[in-house]
Amino acid sequence: MNKILLFITLILSSQVFCQTSKEKAINLIEDILYNEYFLLEKGFDKVEINIDKSLDKLIYKETYHIDNKNIIERKYTVFLDDLYNHSIYYDTFMTDDNLYNVNVRINAKNGSVKFESIEVSEKFPVPIYDTNYVDYITFFSNKPLSKSYVDKLLESCKILFNAEEVVKAKIFKTN
Prior knowledge:
Helices cover 25% and strands 46% of the residues. Strands 1-2-3-4-7-8 form a 6-stranded antiparallel sheet. A 4-stranded mixed sheet has the order 9-6-5-10, with helices on one face. By secondary structure, the chain is of the alpha+beta class. Helix 2 (21-33) packs across helix 3. It has one domain. The chain contains 3 helices and 10 strands. The N and C termini lie far apart (73 Å).
């Protein structure tokens, strides 16, 4: 009888800690893109991804925090049905130490992604707000990643966005 109770307890407790593949992908993306730095000032870059299941919306938020003097927050909000799930596009840039910065882009229906930006700076006492509608979500690793981390990031994006494929492509044209 004790073995049966122990078995049932283990099953119930494991269900509490189980995550869906999308939740695991979100956690991995957030962990990989988190960046702390100590250049001239201390700062960090952080990503938060939430899926509002009741509204079927994805909210992707980036925060850049520089020594309590400058804070930039960028937020993309989109209905999941408006994302083009066929492909995720990415580009990599090799650094001097053979690591990679990666740029990822997920396309959506024309003008369906709400992009909001807020910048608070010690130099300018009034926050700068900007709202626009775009047709993509894009993010960039602000720290160099090893090839294995680039692969993990892209695979997690593929899971999160239900993409059929991940395509290496030039995302932004340079002069």
